[in-house]
Amino acid sequence: MEEECVSVDHSGKEMECLSIIPGWYSDVSDLFPVPGEIMSIKIEKILFKGRSKYQDIMIFQSLTFGKVIVLDGIIQHTERDVCSYVEMIVHLPLASIPNPKKVLIVGGGMGFTLREVLRYPSVEKVDLVEIDDMVVNVSRKYFPDIAKGYEDPRATLYVEDGNAFVKNTAPGTYDAIIVDSSDPIGPSRFFFEKPFFEAVSKALRPGGVYSTQGESAWVFLDIIQKLVEDCNIFFKGSVNYGWTNVPSFLSGAIGFVICSTEGPLVDFKNPVNKVDVDIISTKSESPLKYYNSEVHTAAFALPTFAQKVLCPKK
Amino acid sequence: MEEECVSVDHSGKEMECLSIIPGWYSDVSDLFPVPGEIMSIKIEKILFKGRSKYQDIMIFQSLTFGKVIVLDGIIQHTERDVCSYVEMIVHLPLASIPNPKKVLIVGGGMGFTLREVLRYPSVEKVDLVEIDDMVVNVSRKYFPDIAKGYEDPRATLYVEDGNAFVKNTAPGTYDAIIVDSSDPIGPSRFFFEKPFFEAVSKALRPGGVYSTQGESAWVFLDIIQKLVEDCNIFFKGSVNYGWTNVPSFLSGAIGFVICSTEGPLVDFKNPVNKVDVDIISTKSESPLKYYNSEVHTAAFALPTFAQKVLCPKK
């Protein structure tokens, strides 16, 4: 192993080993500090460390989570549990509309969400807008099985600013827009603000669907409340909060804000596509690991403490 | 703060500070080692450290989780998220049968599960069998609001071995038995073995219900598979696996094996008691924080990777 202990903070410098566990990666970042808890994962080997124009990127082989992808000192994905995050952020919206055809992914340059979107035989066109081409290149090298989605003739990669891309999209272009971004600070902060929500709502067709990373209710209930309030301004179909369990994320949970525009009714809690039955069976080389229709519906069952804040009418 | 860093291993000796984070508690135990991930919680003050006849007990005030209870180097409860574990392990079984009257709790000496059982107006008698009276005494001192359940005239504490207690119980005594134990090693190992399951099934009335801590499917799917198989031998009503999200537990999740004996049908997925509406409203001084009828049903929606192993017929 090249390095005994590593924790990269926002400025790109390595933190002193003094405060962390030698040979382990610790999820500590002054970009998005959550004092009080630290998740540490045993490093077997650091595979890649680099700084792009936008962020620090690290990939390491861990003892029990497979390969781990870290951006700006925050774990983004681990091979062991990425299935929960990417399958849910994609299939919660896409399984809820009949025959999704045109899909936009904002962020997600690793290609994990792209692979999930491409499972749908109805999909004709997927645009993926990732600002940081180092993310795409790193994925092609270290996750070739995932990144091969980029070779699918239905997929087009735009190395651009997703915020500007959406604002320049012709109204009503997409059936679904999925924002697979990092947290509401740093390079992704624009994706959590009203002008972006407005642009997304316009870029969707009537009855189109939108999902975005929506943080954990255990930790950031105030942020989620604001996201839901702001989305309610622009998404006149419905605004929902769903969640799933991701062991390597802070609090072991992550949520999604899931919305639809005015138009044909979308009943997110009762998916029209039985993705687990219809699609796994035809794609048996990489079956779904987490998602099925039951966990889809269950994702919208919120703990009482979150329901009181996010669904006060109940 | 008296101590700068603490991690208690099985033998009761403190580990060297070298390998952990000064001022933080790290969930590392050679009693139940899970190499590859460590959860650490910032300590504000250690409130209690002791060794009973059975185990090491520590309580500390944390920065963001409230008071934290540690047995043999493994986090048992934190004030912030204990609601998820105790409300689910109690209400998944009790909300599934009409008018529970006689309930046995095995373990759970802190009194958290006792408080949940006492919410039911129909409950006439709760026996709680805890082998370690130091756990009860510590709870009375540091969690007086919780431990006041012991003063309820319906509650009786037995400081005894739960395994022997259940085996000596007259057949058909209880409507529900809840095993609120630590992991399947150490002092609690008997609660995860066939002779105990058999004794529980006999101590329950026909159509009686049983719930026990059942580990996380992300980490211990093999253990859970064995538990479910073994329970199927003795519980002829049904055997189910449900789960919930507990941030401070390994993988952010914990499961429960939930069973019923032969007799009146128990439909665990559709609770007969609407605990959230009927009972919170009459106990407003300590409302439910996590449980409601929607999360009850959702608890039985398993990720595909777990469903394939635990419900292979699906």
TrEMBL record, chains A, B:
InterPro entries: PABS (IPR030374), PABS_CS (IPR030373), SAM-dependent_MTases_sf (IPR029063), Spermi_synthase (IPR001045), Spermidine_synt_N (IPR035246), Spermidine_synt_N_sf (IPR037163). It comes from the Eukaryota. The active site is at residue 180. GO terms for cellular component: cytosol. It holds the Pfam family Spermine_synt_N. SUPFAM superfamilies: S-adenosyl-L-methionine-dependent methyltransferases. PROSITE patterns: PABS_1 (PS01330), PABS_2 (PS51006). GO terms for biological process: spermidine biosynthetic process. GO terms for molecular function: spermidine synthase activity. Keywords: Polyamine biosynthesis, Transferase. Residues 22-261 form the PABS domain. The keyword Ribonucleoprotein does not apply. The keyword Transferase applies. Belongs to the spermidine/spermine synthase family. This is PABS domain-containing protein. The lineage of its organism: Eukaryota, Viridiplantae, Streptophyta, Embryophyta, Tracheophyta.
